Amino acid sequence: MRHRSRAAIALPVLALSAALALSGCASGGVQRELPGTAHSSVSVGADGTDYAVQGRNVDLKITKAAVHLGAAGGAQLQMGVTNSGPVTEHLALVAVQGQVATLDGTANNAKSVAGVLIASGSTASFGAANGPKVVLTNGAALKPGGTVAVMLQFGIAGMVRIDVPVLSS
What we know:
By secondary structure, this protein is mainly beta. The protein has one helix at 2-23, and strands at residues 39-45, 48-55, 58-69, 75-83, 89-96, 99-100, 102-104, 111-112, 115-118, 122-126, 133-136, 147-154, 158-168. It folds into two domains: 1-30; 39-168, PCu(A)C copper chaperone (Immunoglobulin-like, Sandwich), CATH 2.60.40.1890. It contains one helix and 13 strands. The protein is globular, with a radius of gyration of 21 Å.
């Protein structure tokens, strides 16, 4: 009889432990902030939009985000993304005015199924000569001097929506 009672207790304890481990609630798991507890700030200037978000396991700064139009109708989103948080971040998706952009990685900011890697303690310079790229598919429809809505989907920080200026290159 004693053996049955131990088994009856052990099975639920094992199931609870597995559920906690899979949900990220066990020690060492990455956890996001509760809704409404992360802090963010945004400022828009003529040369780009700056945005910062801080929360548990998240400390991202986006600097000088702007769409730069090319001569042949192409366009790129240029920005610096600094990850000062304790975990690696990935930029998984970018959409400009509802159109999904193409992400290209580099040796330092490799692209995987999770997106473009931004290691803890590093800055990814999107649009720089040797940096990763965000190539817009709807560049011909954009006009310099205005602003466009940009949605950035990060793996840890989640979704960020900012308005950025459209500049001619």
